[in-house]
């Protein structure tokens, strides 16, 4: 097969036309399937919902635990307000869902601290390095003692939060439907005697066949 | 005979009148209805201390349950509301709901706690999901975080 001048001209014309068509298609890409930003109430189920723990569950469970703790006389009606540690150090995630445990413990601590109004004292154990650094500077004379005076040691905890997130999953191979039962337990442990002075539990069971990934 | 009948007629009419009054005062809490015509007629308003125009909204009774979704107003019936103090002085409210349908129902419930001046004493509670089996009751309970509670309002919405 040989290409004469006319054939080359036709091939060049076709290539140019295809390139222009491709360029035009790229410029006019239709983005209509996209979804614009939706502002959502974190206390209600969001637009993307699966079978795991979501924002509304976190709000609901921490709110319930906080209110229950404040109704417990050992925690919220003691003559000397107890010093409590609420963090995720001993709050275990044994469930199949990947979740940042701090979402739960931070909300619980912050709301409990705001609502307790001195009925409990919160120890920021996660900030102990920061506190120790400042204490060393004060004792070395690098900085002054501040206005609150100095103590022999950092505050110790009377009670500390522990708990577990656990789940049981099941899947229907025929329909692809997934079901998950999630159980979250919260416990306040006496840090001297080891007894559990308060317990709370939150359970949820959800089923769906949506392709939702938690990450 | 006429003399004997007169007190009887008076008594019967008194009972009837009181029953009508009772029915009126104890009628079921309905879904809030807002009539915006008053606001429209009023036009743009300037700064004011009083925000409401009388008669434009159904008043919401406090210390009660309010069904905020029309879809469940004929399905879920609040049967009773209780309130009591906890050992730490906070307020615990409890509401008993009935599922009047033949199907399982799911509702979201939250409570607003107000101080004796009717100011919000704390943020509204998070929505709690309550499941009701057909023709059966379920109890919703919630506790305040503050002790100085004068009023409360329980709201029931349809579960998503």
Commentary on this structure:
The complex is a heterodimer of chains A (215) and B (160). Helix content of chain A is 33%, strand content 22%. Chain A has 215 residues and is α/β, with parallel strands linked by helices. Chain A has a single domain, classed as Rossmann fold, CATH 3.40.50.10610. In chain A, strands 1, 2, 3, 4, 5 and 6 form a six-stranded mixed beta sheet that branches. The longest helix of chain A is centred in the first third of the chain and has 23 residues. About 11% of the residues of chain B have low confidence. Chain B has a four-stranded mixed beta sheet with strand order 1-7-4-5. A three-stranded antiparallel beta sheet of chain B has the order 2-3-6, with no helix packed on it. Chain B is α+β, with helices and mostly antiparallel strands and 160 residues long. Helix content of chain B is 21%, strand content 33%. Chain B has a domain of 101 residues: Immunoglobulin-like (Sandwich), CATH 2.60.40.3230. Classes of the chains: A alpha/beta (215), B alpha+beta (160).
Write out key terms for the chains shown:
heterodimer, A: 215 residues, alpha/beta, Rossmann fold, 6-stranded mixed β-sheet, 33% helix, 22% strand, elongated, B: 160 residues, alpha+beta, Immunoglobulin-like, 4-stranded mixed β-sheet, 3-stranded antiparallel β-sheet
């Amino acid at each position: 097969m040989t290409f004469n001048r006319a054939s080359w001209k036709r091939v060049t014309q076709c290539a140019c036309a295809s390139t222009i068509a491709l360029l035009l298609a790229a410029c006019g890409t239709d983005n209509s399937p996209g979804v614009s930003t939706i502002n959502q109430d974190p206390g209600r189920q969001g637009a993307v919902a699966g079978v795991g723990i979501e924002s509304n569950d976190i709000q609901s469970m921490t709110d319930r635990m906080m209110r229950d703790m404040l109704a417990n006389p050992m925690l919220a009606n003691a003559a000397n307000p107890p010093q409590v540690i609420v963090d995720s150090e001993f709050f275990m995630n044994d469930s199949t869902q990947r979740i940042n445990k701090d979402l739960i413990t931070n909300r619980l601590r912050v709301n409990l601290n705001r609502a307790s109004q001195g009925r409990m004292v919160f120890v920021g154990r996660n900030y102990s390095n920061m506190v120790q650094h400042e204490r060393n500077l004060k004792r070395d004379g690098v900085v002054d003692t501040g206005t609150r005076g100095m103590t022999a040691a950092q505050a110790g905890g009377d009670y500390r939060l522990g708990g577990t997130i656990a789940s049981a999953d099941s899947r229907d191979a025929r329909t692809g439907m997934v079901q998950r039962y999630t159980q979250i337990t919260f416990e306040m442990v006496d840090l001297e005697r080891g007894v559990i002075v308060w317990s709370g539990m939150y359970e949820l069971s959800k089923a769906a066949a949506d392709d939702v990934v938690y990450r | 005979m006429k003399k004997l009948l007169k007190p009887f007629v008076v008594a019967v009419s008194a009972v009837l009148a009181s029953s009508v009054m009772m029915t009126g005062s104890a009628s079921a809490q309905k879904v809030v209805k807002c009539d915006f015509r008053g606001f429209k007629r009023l036009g743009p308003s300037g700064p004011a201390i009083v925000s409401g125009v009388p008669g434009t909204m159904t008043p919401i009774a406090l210390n009660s349950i309010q069904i905020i979704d029309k879809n469940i107003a004929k399905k879920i019936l609040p049967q009773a509301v209780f309130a009591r103090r906890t050992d730490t002085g906070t307020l615990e409210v409890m509401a008993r709901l009935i599922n009047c349908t033949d199907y399982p129902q799911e509702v979201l419930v939250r409570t607003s706690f107000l101080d004796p001046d009717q100011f919000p004493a704390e943020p509204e509670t998070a929505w709690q999901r309550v499941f009701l089996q057909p023709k059966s009751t379920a109890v919703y309970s919630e506790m305040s975080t503050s002790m100085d509670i004068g009023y409360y309002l329980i709201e029931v919405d349809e579960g998503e």
